[in-house]
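Check these lines:
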Amino acid sequence: MTVSKETASLLLRLADPDAPPIDLGGVDDQAIERLTKLAERHGVLSIVWRKLAGRVPVSAVAGMRLRMGQSMLLESLSKTVAAKMTKAGVDCATVKGPVFSHLLYDHRADRPFTDIDFLLHPAHLNKASDVLMREGFQAEQKAIWGNSHRDMEFKWTLTDNPSVLFELHGNLVHYPLLRRRVSFGYKEIVAVGQGDTAAPEALLSVAIIHASCGHKFHRLQMVVDILQAARRLPDEKITGFVRTAEKLGFGLEASVSLSLAGSLFADHRVVMLGDQFGANTSTRIGRRLISPDVATQAADPRHRGSWARRKAFRMVQYLPYRD
């Protein structure tokens, strides 16, 4: 199913957390239902729900409440576990979900999450695992084979409630071939945040790496994270962020991600931030491949054009990047 330009335009206007509500009086209930289904696939239903002013279909309400409750449970548990990690001497940072929700969104419910991610120093994996075991978690076991060590990603679930998922990451770039060019682990988040793993530069870096190196922009939620993080990067920190991102090797990803987020949501400052990285063959190709239309169509796995262009971008990422 191809998303029409009208539906995509309406979704984007509703999915921008900082944009005011719009008049939906001329939109019929069937169109609202299609819109909410699309918003759910893109992970932005919480934002859209807030702006629909009571017009969300009844069928979506129960799921929304469940996700909100799950987020609250996860955040409560994450604070306990994070404190235990610190006490055990584990160098780690909570990333993505609860951190984005708390620091990037004025309405915290706009950014629900389904798991908790810890980015830690690889040398501290065993200590972190011991903490989780003492807190009642068990390591996820693959039936045939697992790539946890290759991907530097380890999944743990609460024994009494398997829906509670915690992930330990030695690196947010999970693919070894891609990690040859760009790596983002605990050392990098400390460097980009100048010691503060929740600094605006660190939040923006994590959002960019997550969307571009992890999931190839397959949901708008990840692009909205980039948008919100970029909006909250102070002007006086832009030069330092650009310099550090280039030094750490994700200038290509930053340029493409910021251009996409700014273009999708008509935010000129975010587009200009992406332009700070300059233009070369890789960034020009990347920006053409990851167009706004490619991002809005990404939620439909049957849309082969979007899939092919996002896959092609991954091939570009494997190439050596030059300023």
Observations:
- Residues 58-87 form the longest helix (30 residues).
- Strands lie at 92-95, 116-120, 137-139, 153-158, 161-169.
- The mean pLDDT is 93.
